[in-house]
Amino acid sequence: MADFKDEISPAVINALASELHRAWDGFPVARFRTDAGAGLAPLTLLARVNHVAATLGRAMPADFPTAAQVLHRAVDSATFTGWMTLPCGYYVADHGIDQPDVALPALAALSPRWSSEGPIRVFIERHPETTYEYLRRWVGHSDEHVRRLVSEGTRPRLPWAPRLRGFISDPGPAVALLDRLHDDESAYVRRSVANHLNDISKDNPAIAIATARRWAATGSDRAAWVIRHGLRTLVKQGNPDALQLLGYDHTAAITVTDLAVTPEAAPIGGQATITFTVTADTTVRAVVDYAVHHAGARGPRAPKVFKLTTTTLSPGRPQAVTRRHQFRQVTVRQLYPGLHRIDIQVNGRVLATTRSPSPRPTPSEHVPANADLSRRPGTRRGTGPRRMPLAPANGLCAHASTDSTLSSA
User: Fold this and answer.
1) Percent of the chain predicted with pLDDT > 70
2) Which of 39, 40, 89, 360 lies deepest, with the highest CB count within 10 Å?
3) Is residue 329 very low, low, confident or very high in pLDDT (cuts 50, 70, 90)?
4) Distance (Å, whole) CA 208 – CA 361
5) How many CB atoms lie within 10 A of CB 363?
6) CA distances from 36 to 13, 17, 43, 181 (A)
7) pLDDT digits (tens, 9 = 90+) for 41-75
């Protein structure tokens, strides 16, 4: 499988050169292809994007308004699309930062080809009032990609981009924009609004809940989906106000029994099956999650909550839940051997748990993130399978599968 960074490849650079030459016959195609391709191989994806953007700075007209017109003409071509357009947004951010009235319309024009959510952030920081004027206008734009840019570009915690500290401290200006987008006709836009609300909830949960309540009062089904998705982190945290807003009773009389995890030890690359039974005294809506307390180099880590299911429980009708949980190394989380405690959480309360984790693993137990896992999972040369001991109902890290089942016990 090709490396993700190869989305910015010599072939993409060649295609970008052809598109820009079509828009401006003075574009130095040969020089750009040589300069942009030089030193490309060892660079990461984002480094490649920045490298190509810097090369554009030496190839495009020195007068930025003139260069912006080249980009506007390029957008008229149906084949000017995809990965080749990503460096163009960063070129605009680098060379148009002092001319926001020229640069921001260029970013809006590029967004239908590749979202300008990353490049626009420097304008929010440097020219907040001017940028906010454009954002207010774009809320009513006919193109869903530009409307989405309003929400996605102002997300305080957008992945792969610098955080917007001002909106973390005071999300009010961004919320005013979201108020006009949460019931947008486009699901693409609404998903961005939900992710933005989720960002807000991480730093300002009270504001996120107050915003969600205001949207819920409209009675819109589209807004209801945005609220459910946007409060997901607070639901995982067991926030009573968020749960109540979504119709889950944090104090409901619910019990969890028969918690078991098999096998009791699992290798990296293997899986374990979690089973338990949920019972309620009255009819009640329930959101069922489980949390894994991963073993760390210096003791257990903060729990990672995984979604299981939502259901309606009826008195006298226990429901059995089963989940197969995969254990594999991922780049964002290092696996360590040791006991991994599991909690079962229903409507925000932990109702069942396994025993406490074992003591901190010794350095010799450390499994490097770049360990060779091409051999049989859980093995080392010259040894038998290396298995992760689980507490008597335990799982390790990793991307839980979505094959949970719900049936009558």
Assistant:
1) 86
2) 89
3) confident
4) 39
5) 7
6) 7, 10, 12, 39
7) 999 999 999 999 999 999 999 999 999 999 999 99
The SS3 call for residue 407 is strand
Instruction: Tokens 């959510």: give the residue.
Output: 117
Q: Which two tokens stand for residue 366?
A: 């450390």
Q: Which of 124-128, 166-170, 304-308, 326-330 has the lowest mean pLDDT?
A: 326-330
Task: Give the tokens for residue 231.
Answer: 């409060």
> What span, in angstroms and rounded, lies between the C-alpha atoms of 273 and 278?
16
Give the torsion through C-alpha atoms of 236, 239, 241, 242, to 10 deg.
-20
Give the domains, in start order, of the chain with CATH numbers: 254-408 (2.60.40.10)
Residue 236: partners with Cβ closer than 8 Å, 6 or more residues away: 289, 305, 307, 345
Q: Which of 171, 289, 278, 195 is nearest to 237 (CA)?
A: 289
Residue whose tokens read 């880590």? 301
Residue length, the chain? 409
Region 25-44: mean pLDDT is 97
The pair of structure tokens assigned to 69 is: 């017109």
